[in-house]
Design a protein that fits this description.
The complex is a heterodimer of chains A (about 260) and B (about 325).
Chain A (H helix, E strand, L loop, with lengths): L1 H19 L2 H26 L10 H35 L2 H5 L5 H8 L6 H17 L5 H31 L5 H12 L9 H10 L7 H7 L6 H30 L2
Helix pairs in contact in A: 1-5, 2-3, 2-6, 3-5, 3-6, 3-7, 3-10, 7-10, 7-11
Chain B lengths: L1 E16 L3 H7 L5 E16 L3 E5 L6 H8 L7 E6 L8 H5 L2 E5 L11 H11 L4 H14 L15 H13 L5 E5 L7 H18 L2 E5 L3 H7 L2 E6 L2 E7 H5 L3 E8 L5 H6 L3 E6 L4 E7 L6 H8 L4 E7 L3 H10 L1
Parallel strand pairs in B: 3-7, 3-8, 5-6, 6-7
Antiparallel strand pairs in B: 1-2, 1-4, 8-9, 10-12, 10-13, 11-12
Classes of the chains: A mainly alpha (about 260), B alpha/beta (about 325).
The structure holds adenosine-5'-triphosphate (ATP) and magnesium ion.
Chain lengths: ~260, ~325
């Protein structure tokens, strides 16, 4: 376990060094990522502040929602979503063999190899934004905060299951980066609260594809609104991760016995 | 001690045939013709600890497929493999900690970073302890003279320099067996020389077992104690490298003062013309079981005037070619 953590840190550092090889470019992309991600919340604020979807939300609550969304998404894309991209590259180059000659779990190797140094900006930006918002929301309780954080962890779990399904999909069927666009599109659903969606979609994104656990549910928990949705979504996330892991490993097994 | 035992190993590949053009492409969505190719077709062999064994065979013979199965990255369709009491594709994680692999066509280094970074990454992946890593790295750096090279970004290295670093990656964790799939592909004579010497030295000192595939017969001749020739998924030769040379055939290259009279030579018994080298010289093959070497001169005694005669063993490539055709 410790050796796994060491390896993960080592590879994170390597990826940052990687980007440092083109120092200027990395710096610019970090900054531009940061700025772009901040434009999102501001824009959303202007448009949705008085829209029916956000009825009853205060400015800082909306900001918190966006901050959490950025944090969870940023963390996920930084630490593991790259496996989707990485699967694509690895398979195109026929280099999956190189992963299998390492005495490690191939999924863990993939995660280490696909750390995304750029999304650190999103993650940190999101954290700062969330903190800023929380400081301006009156009466945030400790228990609310804790539930919110747990919900965010489940949000990360949800993205993890997506990463597993998409990576498997690439292994089995296609080598296409269009998959990444689909992923982004799905993620965007979580950028807004349940109330802006029609009922059917609201249920779908709570119970089956629990995207609201990424931002809306934790945000609401933090400012004191906890309901049954959090439980339903959490269970759904656990099921999705289990299914995702099963799919990923059976895909890998099938892939290597078919000979690529 | 046998370190590798392979029994009745089989691997088939399914490929889907598809006609040309758009209509065919659409039709193939519904009905595909499956073509099965037997890449490895019932192979048996065993390898001793400390042996250097060469896999030879024409393109598509099944060498890489065999190496992939032996190194745990591919599941076979049948047969058994026992390497140091592991079944590679089943005990993969434990097993691969004990082997090193170089795929000549693929790189384990990081393109934008210097090889030394990849070495440190390797250290973490294989959980090599600091002390052992330092000694090994030191030793390999000297043997392959990469002290300066390993600090440059990989993308700036020549193929030969990069390949030396790939070898370091394969050796840092002190593997007991090393699989090399075309490790000298694209290298010049000097780079090949460095690699060959390196393999020999490691094999001598540490009794590391090496399995090498190559299309360069010199690699095989210089390096390997034993050759396994694979053709169409089957083993057609498996014996000491020296055995491949020992047969009754000799090459006799004769240079005349006058133009070669080929029709006359062709009529002679026991001789076979291998090649007409020029208007004045010709290479013949004789079977020494039918005609001794001292008789050769006699044969030409009353014929054309001979300027030079050279007797040699047929090159290993000729023998191999025959095996491929068999
Ligand atoms: N992943 C695969 N899918 C389908 N067919 C494959 C696959 N890998 C190899 N083959 C087929 O199996 C046969 C053996 O291939 P292999 O790569 O083992 O040959 P090789 O002896 O290494 O040849 P070379 O000298 O060209 O490297 C070939 O006919 C090849 O087309
Ligand atoms: Mg090959």
């Amino acid at each position: 376990m410790t050796s796994a953590i060491k390896l993960w840190i080592k590879s994170a550092l390597i990826h940052i060094a990687f980007r440092m090889a083109y120092r200027g470019e990395y710096f610019i992309s970090l900054v531009s990522m940061f700025v772009l991600e901040l434009v999102g919340p501001i824009f959303t604020y202007i448009i949705y502040y008085n829209s029916p979807g956000f009825a009853g939300w205060t400015f800082y609550q909306v900001l918190l929602l966006q901050g959490i969304f950025l944090t969870v998404k940023g963390f996920s894309f930084m630490s593991f979503m790259g496996i989707v991209w990485h699967s694509n590259i690895t398979l195109q180059r026929g280099e999956f063999d190189l992963t299998l000659i390492k005495p490690r779990n191939p999924l863990f190797m993939f995660i280490c190899q696909s750390f995304d140094a750029e999304d650190t900006a999103k993650f940190i930006g999101g954290l700062l934004l969330s903190l800023y918002a929380i400081l301006h929301i009156p009466a945030v309780s400790l228990s609310g905060l804790l539930i919110g954080i747990v919900a965010m962890i489940f949000g990360v779990g949800f993205f993890f299951s997506l990463a597993l399904f998409f990576s498997s999909f690439i292994f089995r069927f296609i080598r296409s980066m269009r998959v990444y666009d689909v992923l982004e599109a799905i993620a965007m659903v979580g950028y807004y609260p349940k109330s802006i969606y029609p009922r059917f979609a609201g249920t779908l994104f709570t119970a089956i594809l629990p995207i609201f656990i990424v931002a809306a549910i934790p945000a609401k928990a933090i400012f004191g609104e906890v309901d049954i949705d959090i439980l339903i979504s959490a269970v759904s996330v656990i099921v999705l991760i289990a299914l995702g892991l099963y799919t990923w490993f059976s895909t890998i097994k099938k892939y290597s016995s078919a000979g690529g | 001690m046998k370190i590798i035992r392979v029994n009745k190993l089989r691997k088939e590949f399914k490929s889907y045939e598809r006609g040309e053009g758009f209509t065919e492409a659409v039709l193939s969505l519904f009905k595909r013709n499956v073509k099965i190719s037997k890449a490895v077709n019932d192979i048996d062999f065993a390898i001793e600890k400390g042996e250097v064994v060469g896999f030879l065979g024409p393109n598509g013979a099944g060498k890489s497929t065999t190496i992939k199965i032996l190194s745990g990255v591919m599941h076979p369709d049948g047969g058994s493999v026992n390497i140091m009491n592991y079944t590679p594709w089943i005990d993969r994680r434990k097993y691969v900690a004990n082997i090193g692999v170089v795929f000549g066509q693929k790189s384990q280094l990081f393109w934008d970073l210097p090889p030394i970074d990849a070495f440190y990454m390797h250290k973490s992946i294989f959980s090599i302890d600091e002390k052992s890593f330092k000694t090994e790295l030191d030793k390999l750096t000297k043997l392959l003279s990469i002290k300066e090279i390993m600090k440059k970004p990989t993308r700036q290295l020549s193929l030969g320099e990069r390949m030396r670093c790939e070898f370091v990656m394969a050796m840092l964790h002190k593997p007991k067996i090393v699989f090399l799939d075309e490790p000298t592909i694209g290298l010049d004579i000097f780079a090949k020389e460095i690699i060959r010497k390196f393999i020999k030295k490691i094999n001598n000192k540490e009794k590391t077992t090496f399995i090498v595939t190559s299309h360069d017969l010199e690699d095989i001749e210089h390096l390997c104690d034993r050759i396994i020739v694979i053709n169409e998924g089957r083993i057609v030769f498996n014996d000491k490298t020296t055995k491949l040379k020992v047969n009754n055939k000799k090459y006799v290259t004769i240079k005349f003062y006058d133009k070669v009279n080929l029709t006359k030579i062709k009529k002679m018994k026991n001789f076979k013309v291998v090649k007409k080298l020029s208007d004045y010289s010709v290479r013949l093959e004789i079977d020494t079981s039918k005609m001794s070497l001292n008789e050769i001169i006699k044969v030409f005694d009353n014929g054309q005037k001979v300027e030079d005669i050279e007797i040699s063993n047929p090159p290993i490539s000729e023998i191999i070619k025959k095996l491929y055709r068999a």
